[in-house]
Design brief:
The complex is a heterodimer of chains A (420) and B (382).
Chain A: H1 2-7, H2 23-44, H3 52-77, H4 85-103, H5 105-129, H6 134-156, H7 182-192, H8 197-208, H9 213-231, H10 233-243, H11 245-250, H12 255-281, H13 293-303, H14 308-326, H15 329-353, H16 357-376, H17 382-400
Helix pairs in contact in A: 2-15, 3-8, 3-9, 3-12, 3-13, 3-14, 4-5, 4-6, 4-12, 4-13, 5-6, 5-12, 7-8, 9-10, 10-12, 13-14, 13-17, 14-15, 14-17, 15-16
Chain B: H1 2-33, H2 40-48, H3 52-77, H4 85-102, H5 107-136, H6 140-158, E1 166-168, E2 171-173, E3 186-188, E4 191-193, H7 196-213, H8 215-225, H9 227-232, H10 237-255, H11 257-264, H12 275-285, H13 290-306, H14 322-363, H15 368-381
Helix pairs in contact in B: 1-14, 3-7, 3-10, 3-12, 3-13, 4-5, 4-6, 4-10, 4-12, 5-6, 5-10, 7-8, 12-13, 12-14, 14-15
Classes of the chains: A mainly alpha (420), B mainly alpha (382).
Chain lengths: 420, 382
């Protein structure tokens, strides 16, 4: 590694071992992927892969995952691992629907957040005050949240009109809106199936068509979290608790307070994600509605290297692959096989350029397999589509786990005064 | 020495007892808050446990919980979180069902062969996470969560009708397994106990033997207690991680077999899921100790199987979900009380050692420095 550092021009390497992708490079990469996607769409004729509807669905599916991921981000930045996100999501779905069908959807949103925050508070008490292993506490919380909502659901929903012990009565919609004029125009553009232009129109159009106000709030949480955590003194202190609580303590930071706040906020965000599921994604609470999205949110956060931007990208990827499952999966994924194969060829070329021949050979071989798979079949089984996001996460983690950097004291027990 | 033992027993028992008392108390609070009798559900459930058919159900369920919890416990003993038991046992059960349907050997070969298939499948699935952890540094928690989801897809794909699936009404099964692979049950008054429960007990004995009476077990526990210390004494940590993962996977592969070989004889959509997550709670409650896990599994199975009757109780019906709440509360109470009891024990021990050191120092005060040092060492050695 050190020889490679010497051989490379030093301009782009602020510190050895950590290459940061600058914004222009990132934009270039995204543009490149978009162009490639467009080419693949024209070659295969699978117009669905960048249609407005697809993008819109993807966004809807990405929101709860992203919110759960943000929840994970807040907790882990303060040094508390949060496997209990799933439980907090469940609490969010239940409280959201429970308050929603009685007092209207916005109250539902508020209660969803409160419900999640309640789960967060419990997790905080167990992990911070009682110093129990974070993963153990999270798993326990998931079991408890499931049991509590099931129990409460029989009380609150059974006997109401349209409600049973497993689902709530329907909740009024929060409504949705499209950006007037622009949305229709982009839809028209998208329908023309022009090279690149239509794809861009589909992508942007999907982000501004049939939006729920909650989606806007959720998306706004990403830059907001970044700003609070990285641009305010509150955020700096909070992150210092996740990196080195003893040092933070010596500078007068009340580590317990920040950890508590972080985990409660984490629960609140996950609760918001749960409320989104029961108020926007569907209009009822349904047992088992979360479907493991809390875990996926956690994976999206790790995928995104404990950063809000990367997390949003991860959530988007999960949302997109999920949407493929719902909308004409087989053919679209088949088209994406070609895209993946081409991307792998580019990856192999890059690896050769970096003189890493063995990984390059493996990548090329996988790419060849993809081409063969693409050539020999017309459709991909639905189950492959379902598994795609998880496999991609595993692949990304296995390729980049060494470059990921989690907060230094993440998951470590902390007691006041232990540094003396 | 005897006093020391009593102390240990006290500490070991105090944790679960406090946890159970707290959990029961909190559940009663929940019952009171929902305007129900805070005591009657317990007596109703205990009454259920006296019926022999319920006892059989409890025992059968506990057998599955026990195997799954053992699998989790093996990981826990060396600080590995195998969240993936869920995917491992389901995949293993599905593959075993398929093999059992398409291959017919004589019974004495078929059953061991099926068990081997299940263990290999479970070990394979867990091994992926193990290899990713040892070679690429991927956290086993995330890897096994992903593998759980992937296992669901793999199972869905393999049970398609065009692959190994056999549709039966609304259900998708893998066809009925060959009779030679059915594990004989033990007929009792209330029904049939899965013969596999015996295997579960044997697995518990084996678990104890391997962990406490072999070098491998010692290395495993040492790595769990302190990886750096174990590495310093010559333990290859990476190899330990991989082997612990493989063994954990192999055991979880067995977890689905009691019901598969003893009852359903096919893998279908209605095959029990979520066992792996329950098992984490059971392993925690049982403190990774084979006997403790057995009690925990029985308690869990009791709550599972005795609670449905609450829905039909006369004169007043209760919601059976109260049992699920109780399970959740037990787990939370358990983890907190274990930690607190451990710290309390530690403080007691520190105080005692401190007192003994002080006493020794006083007694040897006139004998000079040499004697003092010796007695300090002697006390510290305890």
């Amino acid at each position: 590694m050190s020889t490679a550092t010497v051989a490379k021009p030093p301009a782009k390497q602020p510190s050895p071992g950590r290459r940061r992708v600058s914004l222009p490079v990132l934009l270039l990469i995204i543009a490149g992927v978009l162009v490639l996607t467009s080419v693949v769409r024209l070659v295969t004729g699978a117009d669905g892969i960048t249609s407005t509807g697809q993008m819109s669905t993807a966004l809807k599916l990405a929101v709860p995952i992203g919110l759960a991921g943000l929840g994970g981000l807040w907790a882990e930045r303060a040094g508390v691992v949060n496997i209990g996100l799933e439980g907090m999501l469940i609490l969010g779905t239940w409280f959201g629907a429970w308050a929603g069908f009685q007092w209207g959807p916005w109250v539902g949103v508020l209660f969803g957040i409160l419900g999640g925050a309640l789960g967060g508070l419990l997790h905080a008490i167990v992990t911070i005050t009682f110093n129990v292993n974070h993963i153990v506490s999270g798993v326990a919380l998931n079991i408890l949240a499931l049991g509590a909502t099931r129990y409460l659901a029989t009380f609150a929903f059974e006997g109401e009109e349209g409600g049973t012990s497993k689902q709530s009565p329907p909740v009024e919609s929060l409504g949705d809106f499209s950006v007037p004029g622009l949305s229709d125009w982009l839809q028209d553009l998208n329908d023309k199936h022009w090279f690149l232009v239509s794809d861009l129109a589909g992508l942007v159009g999907g982000l501004i068509t049939d939006l729920s106000p909650l989606t806007v709030i959720a998306v706004a949480m990403v830059p907001l979290s970044w700003w609070v955590l990285w641009r305010t003194s509150f955020g700096l202190r909070l992150r210092s608790c996740g990196e080195n609580p003893i040092a933070a303590e010596s500078l007068g930071v009340n580590v317990y307070k920040y950890k508590y706040l972080a985990v409660v906020i984490s629960g609140g965000l996950a609760g918001l994600g749960g409320a989104f599921l029961s108020l926007v994604a569907s209009n009822i609470y349904l047992e088992g509605q979360t479907g493991g999205r809390g875990y996926i949110g956690l994976a999206a956060m790790i995928f995104g290297n404990w950063m809000p931007g990367g997390l949003a990208l991860g959530a988007g990827l999960f949302g997109y692959t999920d949407s493929l499952k719902l909308r004409g999966g087989g053919t679209n994924v088949h088209a994406l096989l070609l895209l993946l194969a081409i991307l792998l060829v580019i990856g192999a070329v890059y690896l050769v350029w970096r003189k890493r021949y063995i990984p390059a050979a493996i990548t090329a071989a996988v790419s060849a397999l993809m081409f063969v798979w693409y050539g020999l079949t017309d459709e991909v089984p639905n189950q492959v589509v379902t598994a795609t996001p998880y496999v991609v996460t595993l692949l990304v983690l296995s390729l980049s786990a060494q470059r990921l950097r989690m907060p230094k004291a993440d998951g470590m027990p902390y007691r006041k005064g232990q540094g003396k | 020495m005897k006093k020391f033992d009593r102390e240990r027993v006290l500490l070991a028992v105090a944790g679960p007892v406090i946890a159970l008392v707290v959990a029961v108390a909190l559940t009663s609070v929940v019952l009171l808050a929902s305007g129900k009798s805070p005591i009657e559900p317990y007596s109703l459930m205990l009454e259920q446990a006296t019926f022999s058919d319920i006892q059989v159900l409890i025992l059968n369920q506990a057998g599955m919980y026990y195997l799954a919890a053992l699998a989790v416990a093996i990981g826990f003993r060396m600080n590995l979180f195998n969240i993936g038991v869920d995917g491992q046992y389901r995949l293993a059960a599905m593959v075993t069902a398929v093999v059992g349907t398409h291959l017919a050997l004589p019974s004495f070969l078929q059953i061991p062969m099926l068990m081997l298939v299940a263990m290999l499948t479970g070990a394979f699935w867990a091994g992926i996470a193990g290899i990713l952890k040892t070679t690429r540094g991927v956290s086993e928690v995330v890897a096994t969560i992903m593998l759980n989801a992937i296992a669901t897809s793999v199972i869905a794909y393999l049970t398609l009708t065009e692959n190994f699936g056999v549709p039966v009404g609304n259900n998708q099964t893998t066809g009925v397994m060959e009779k030679s692979g059915w594990f004989p049950g033990i007929k009792v008054a209330g029904g049939e106990i899965y013969g596999f429960v015996v295997i579960a007990v044997l697995a518990g004995v084996l678990y104890w033997l391997i962990l406490n009476r072999t070098r491998f077990g010692f290395d495993l526990r040492a790595t769990g207690a302190s990886e750096s210390a174990a590495a310093a004494s010559g333990v290859n940590a990476k190899r330990m991680v991989l082997s612990a993962m493989l063994i954990s996977g192999a055991v979880s592969g067995l977890a689905g077999l009691p019901i598969l070989l003893g009852d359903t004889h096919t893998y279908s959509l209605s095959f029990p899921a979520g066992l792996g997550f329950t098992a984490i709670g059971i392993a925690l409650l049982g403190r990774n100790n084979p006997v403790g896990i057995a009690f925990a599994a029985l308690l869990w199975a009791f709550l599972d199987k005795a609670s449905p009757a609450l829905d039909y109780a006369q004169p007043e019906a209760y919601d059976k979900e109260i049992a699920v709440i109780m399970q959740g509360l037990i787990v939370i109470a358990v983890v907190v009380s274990y930690e607190e009891v451990r710290r309390w024990g530690l403080r007691r021990q520190q105080r005692r050692v401190g007192e003994e050191l002080a006493a020794a120092a006083r007694a040897n005060g006139n004998n000079g420095n040499n004697g003092n040092n010796d007695s300090v060492k002697e006390v510290a050695a305890r």
